[in-house]
Structure formats: structure tokens, C-alpha cells
Amino acid sequence: MDLTHFDSEGRARMVDVSEKAETARFALAKGRVRMETGTWERIKSGGIEKGDVLAVAQVAGIMAAKRTSALIPMCHPLAITSAKLDFALEEPGIVEIGATVKVTGKTGVEMEALTAVSVAALTIYDMCKAIDKTMVMSDIRLMEKAGGKSGHFRRNPEAQE
Amino acid sequence: MDLTHFDSEGRARMVDVSEKAETARFALAKGRVRMETGTWERIKSGGIEKGDVLAVAQVAGIMAAKRTSALIPMCHPLAITSAKLDFALEEPGIVEIGATVKVTGKTGVEMEALTAVSVAALTIYDMCKAIDKTMVMSDIRLMEKAGGKSGHFRRNPEAQE
Amino acid sequence: MDLTHFDSEGRARMVDVSEKAETARFALAKGRVRMETGTWERIKSGGIEKGDVLAVAQVAGIMAAKRTSALIPMCHPLAITSAKLDFALEEPGIVEIGATVKVTGKTGVEMEALTAVSVAALTIYDMCKAIDKTMVMSDIRLMEKAGGKSGHFRRNPEAQE
Amino acid sequence: MDLTHFDSEGRARMVDVSEKAETARFALAKGRVRMETGTWERIKSGGIEKGDVLAVAQVAGIMAAKRTSALIPMCHPLAITSAKLDFALEEPGIVEIGATVKVTGKTGVEMEALTAVSVAALTIYDMCKAIDKTMVMSDIRLMEKAGGKSGHFRRNPEAQE
Amino acid sequence: MDLTHFDSEGRARMVDVSEKAETARFALAKGRVRMETGTWERIKSGGIEKGDVLAVAQVAGIMAAKRTSALIPMCHPLAITSAKLDFALEEPGIVEIGATVKVTGKTGVEMEALTAVSVAALTIYDMCKAIDKTMVMSDIRLMEKAGGKSGHFRRNPEAQE
Amino acid sequence: MDLTHFDSEGRARMVDVSEKAETARFALAKGRVRMETGTWERIKSGGIEKGDVLAVAQVAGIMAAKRTSALIPMCHPLAITSAKLDFALEEPGIVEIGATVKVTGKTGVEMEALTAVSVAALTIYDMCKAIDKTMVMSDIRLMEKAGGKSGHFRRNPEAQE
Lengths: 161, 161, 161, 161, 161, 161
Description:
- Six copies of one chain form a homohexamer.
- By secondary structure, chain A is an alpha+beta fold.
- Chain A has four helices and five strands.
- Chain A has a five-stranded antiparallel beta sheet, with helices on one face.
- In chain A, α2 (about 55-65) packs antiparallel against α4 (about 110-130).
- Chain A starts with about 20 loop residues before the first strand and ends in a 7-residue tail after the last strand.
- Residues about 45-50 of chain A have low confidence and may be disordered.
- The interface of A and E includes residues 13, 77 and 78 of A.
């Protein structure tokens, strides 16, 4: 199989999807921000009481999903029909981020979902960096995708992350 | 210490840096894309022979560094004076990304460096996803930063990533 | 009825329009810039003779209509098929702005029309602020919208503005 | 006094501020969204309990302040050093929006403050339009500005809005 | 025939394409950068050996194709399905640039192809300007376009360029 | 002398200008759009009487100057202090475009001036393409630049264009 973003001379190009059918597609991506427990507790209480880091990260992630094709050079522009971000703070020191994106189009939206997770993670970092510079953004990965000719993809949950 | 992005009512704001001095600042961030060995070999040979995934990722990362304040809601706009991305393919299955950004300004450029790494990683994912959907973007973190009142930060190399 | 931009946990999201049909839609929005009579006369004559504030405002409004989904966080990206701005200078001291936007899509274009009016108004302010800082942008409102399941909306002309 | 955005032939241009000194500047703008009392109550309770229209509007306003020169054709690009949005829900049916922007630069930031108010107002409209299409954005105006050669401006509070 | 971008009062507008059918369309544009032979040789060898001016210009051109409607005021937003840039260095001192863009849409993509060529040319200029300030970007023109009601257009090769 | 946009491994980077002094800089670029005489006459009369292609092109060029660093990958972001576009219709069939840009900064503004000319030319093309598809954009070149260490550059008027 070929790296489809390269033509026969090895130069980059936007893959030609002109002949592809428009189908309903969705993608789910996830990622984590690992941080000091004190930072994590501040985000957690802030989300409930007053300052809401996650509300800002959520807006940033949704806006980034819409801007994906302007950031990733070979990505096709897509008029996404849905973008949703979720956060889980179950394990101390870890903010888990999930992004679901949908479209009716000729290509998938995994880049949109991954970009939403990445920018939400960067926003969390930005808003907490005054108290914690050692945060790490990790495990940004595609969990599931559906629609289109390549069929349903579901990440093996036992796979090493 | 406070989460500086929230005012006394807990609402988000852009931190007021009006009174800060303009100083020379730099930041170095790193991150990794983990992938199947076959994908990694394709990138590696492509970089030398013909199709160059890393050349595209590098351009994407530099352009993203310039767009950081448009992506991260509370980030200050900064006229960066230097942006540089490096890639290392030493360990099979791992592309290591490094980004160095400089500015003479009132705030630091760690978000610019982290954004450059993230978007370069997303670009690598995008260009290889036809052959490998299980790639993971990880360990995106600040390594070093200098300039400004908060002083020199250097990540403890022994710290868990 | 629900505030559709919030999910069941109260977090913001882009409303899922995946299942909606693509229909022809249009929206008409209006707004006003109130200013000193002297400023208004300058704009009026300028529009005919030489400097044309309204020509610049018109371009700005059309370009803003295309950028709506990048400005308004929960707005869906839409490939609009028509954007038109009109100005009326009938009442001394008042520039009336009208914007009509069309699309064939899954959601309406009222935000595009309102954004076009707002940015045209801001542009008029910007171009005249050297001679008049007291201008006020007002009565920015949806006049009419058609297409889609929610049916035809026409603003009651007797309604308080 | 001249409409400074036009040259001697009447064509639009970006005013030449090359010779101006860099000074500390700030601007305060205000505006209102008028709506049905039921909508207003939903926003008010949402702001306290769960769904937070104003949190999203605030992020949108701050991001718009940074993008002002990309929206308003003759506006100079400025690296703003502070942006803050406030909302007051004192009078039933009215959301009052205030935006304060600061910069150290060669031109003022009134357009940035006015743009922040306008986009925050548009975002409130967008998030509530499913329950209320008759909302009106009004009284968007400059309240105060300081810094630069033109001196301190403070809007006469008795002036008609 | 009329200048379709002006309404009956002579004001600019985005042409209303709402009633047009969606058809498969493509456009091919070309252009040249003329430069000193020494510069040209550096680009040529660089492309093979080490620094690759054309790889950066290619990415810039593809990204610009996607941003066309944000740059050209009356251009319709289009979700392009393919963008491809080619370079030829056959004649010493001349880099020939070609861009092919495709879409399924209501309007053509000639502006996207011409914008891609222009931005690729500007990028070549930018990357070589330290050694050659006299480069000239020329002969940027539409070569061929297909799809839509206006039929197939093919530039007469004998026409003066 | 080196192609400064490449590091020692031949990879592209944004040139490090951190150590450069901020100086007053300006650049003047020019270009031409060649077209059928009938098209040219329409633009000329339109510019005086009613529809004004050049007014739209002028706004587009000024806005593009501000967006240069987002289009050209290795360009530094610069807060330009002046942008001015002029058009001359002296020779039948030729629209001559001139752009002057100023900044106080660490790098020059030739790319901003050249980008303004290119986008103004593309806008003229876009607005007239319904009546003339054979227009050619040519002779886009730097005429003069001042400020910074590299000294005053003035294009030799006898040089082949």
C-alpha cells in the first residue's frame, strides 16, 4: 500500500477524492494530559465552583476541529456537521479528553477529531502552566472511525498506548 | 499561586501582561509519534530518497507556531523571531519531534513550541494514516524555557514522561 | 424547548445536524450605525464623489460572512452561495445596513447575515472614528429567514427594536 | 479634520502610523443583547448552574479581539497585552457586555474592544437562537479610551445611546 | 455580458450561485518565477541534494488553494477535493509552476488554481531573496478549465503570454 | 552567500532574526494584469462611474499584506504600520498595481508588498473573469526597499522585467 499523500515523483499532494462518494462518517479520538495532583484538583474543583479550565478547552477544541484543514497541509476542507468534546477526571493527575466529529463527505474526520483533542490539551496546558510546567500531553490516538470505503475501524483496547 | 487565566469571579481572561518588560525568550518542546516499524521505515527512507513526510510536517509545525494565539484562546499574540523543527528517527517505530521558538516579548513562547510539535505530529499522522491508523502522539512536553521573570526552566530528564 | 448548544451535562457542543436534509436557505439581517450628522454627510458624499466608506464596509461584510464559523464557536461551517450587503442613508445620522445570505445546507445562515452586518458596522466605525468617536452600532437583528424544518420566520415590523 | 482612511484621491488605505510613538493604551467598549425574559432567565441560571452561554461568549469575544485586524480592512495589526470581557444581567431581558483591551503600541485598541463586544453578542445570539429569534444586539459603543496623542476620551453618560 | 460581481447599483457582491448545479470541475493554472541562473541552479540542486525550496513552495501552494475564498473577497467558499502542484526547471533561470485543483461544486476552481500558483511563486521568492532580489513572478494564467455551464476552456497556446 | 531559509542539514526553518535591531523599513512592489482592451475599458469606466473593481482589489491587497506570514511559510509575523495600494490604467489593456508597505521591525516587508500586489491582481482577475478568462498576471517584482542591514535596494529600471 502506498503513502497516498505522495505522487509518483515523491512530492506531496492533497489526495484526489473527487470520485469518492459522500457518505456519513464519524471519528472518535482520545488523549490525556498528565499533571501534578494539585493541578488536577484545581481543575476539577474549578470546573464545579468557579473558574472552568475545561469550558475554555472545550470551546478551543471545537473551534480547532473546524480549522483542521487550515492547519494540516494535505487535509481536505470538510463542512463538519457535529463536534463534541468530553473530559473525564477519574484518575488523579490525569485529564482524559475525548472528541467525536461527524460529517457527510468524501473523506473521514479522524484528523478533525485528533486536532480537537490536541488543541484542547494545549489549552489545558496554557491555562495551568503558571502553576505546573511539567504537564505532558500523551496518548493522542484514534479510537474509532466509521463511514467510507475503508470500513469500520475500532482500536484494539489491549494495544499498547 | 493562582491559575492566572481566571479573574476573581472565576471567569477566563487573557492575563494582563501590559506591565511586563520585553525580554529575549526561547522555549524548546518535544514530542513523539509512535507507529508500526514498517511505517517508520517508510518515513525514514522517504526522507532521504523521495517522498518527504518530515518536510511537510516541518512546514506545518512552523506555520502552526505562528498561528498559536489564534488557536489557544488565552494566548497572547506574539511576533516570533525564530521557529525551528527537528526530527530524530533513532529508535525504530518512534519519530521524535523537537521545536525551538524565540521571541523578544512580554510573555514566553512555550505554547508556540508545544503547538508546533503537536501540529507536526498531527501532520505525520495525516500523511501516514492510509497505511497505519494506530499511530499515537505522545510525550508532548516543555523541555526548557528561558527569559522573563519566572526564570530558566529545564525539565528534569529523570522525570516520568 | 432546549438551548440546543448544551448537552445533557450542560457543556457546550456544536449541535449535531448530520441527519438534517440539505435545503435551500436564506436569511436577511439588518442593523444601524448612528452618528453625528456631519459624519453621515461625509459618508454620503464620499460614497458618490470620492472616498467610499461603504465600499470598504461592503467588502468587509461579505468577507466576514464567509468567516462566521471561525468566529462564532458553535456555528457550523457552511459553503454560502450568495452574500449581498446594502446600505441606506435615508435618515440623517443613520446608516442602515442590510445583509442577505444564501446557502444550500443543513443549517440556516442567520449567523452569517448577522455577522456580515456587525462587521460592516464595525468597519464604518473604524473608517470614521478619527472624526466621530461617539457612533453607536444598534438594532442588529434578524429580519427574515427561510428554509429548513423551523419554517419561515419574518420579524414583526411593529416589534420594539 | 479628515477621514484619515482615504488618500488624496479618495481611495482607502491603512493610515500610516510609522512615525507614532509606542504608548500604553486601553479601550473600554460596551453593548447589549436584548431578548425575551424567558431567554434571559435561562442564560442567567445556566451561568450559575450548568450550561454557560456566557463562558462561551467570553472565549469568543477574547479570540475575536485578537483577530480584529483580519476582520476590519484598515485596522492595524496589534499584539494586544490584555483582553477581558464582563457580563452583567441586572435588568431582566438585557445582557450587558463590556470589553477592556490593552496594548503598548502605535494605535489605539477601540476596534479590538468593539469587535470583542460584537462577537460576544453574536455568540449569545447563536447559542440562544433555537429558543428566541427576536434578540437584538444594540448600543455597541466606545465608553473610554486612553493613551496616544488624541488624549483621554470618556463617553458622556447622558448622551443618547 | 456583465461584470457579474456588481449589482445594478454598481456595488460589489458575491455572485448568487444558489441555483447552479453541482458538477465536477477542474482548473489548471500556470506561472513562472524568473531569476538569476545562479539562483536557479541552487534551487535545482537543492531539490535533489539538501534544502528543498520547491517542497516548501508546494506545501504553501496547496494550503493557499484551500484559503482562496478568505483572500479573494467575492470568491465562494469551496470544499476542494484535490490540489496538486508541479514544478519544472527546464529552462535555465526559470521555474515553471503548475497547479491543478478539482471540486464538485456550484462554481469553478480557477481562482484556487491561480492562488496556488501565486503563493507558490511568492514562497520561492521568499526563500531565495537573500541571494537574489531581482526575481520576477510572471505569466500567471489560466490554462484550462472544465465543468459547469460555461463549458471547457483551453488557453490558446499561441496567445501572447 | 547562503539560502538563509535552510539549516545545515538542508531543512527549512524560519530564519532567526532575534538579534537584529528594530529599524524603520519600507518596501515598494509592482505588478501588472494584462487583459483584453474591452475588459480594461470596463474597469476604467467602472472605477469612475459605478462598479469599482479597483476598490475591491485595494481592500483585498491591504488585507493580504496583513496576512502574509500566514501564507508564506517561512515569513516572520510583522505588525505593519502602513499599507497602500495604487493602480494606474495608462496603457490600454494593462492595469499596473503598486503596493507600499512600512514597518518598524527586525525584518523587511518585501513579502508583504509582493503579496499585496499578487492578491490585488488575483482579485481583479476574479471580478472580471466572467468576461475575460485570458487575463495574465505578470511582472510582480520588488522595486525598492529600505531599512535594515542589507541597505537600500532599488531595482534597475533598465533591467528586463
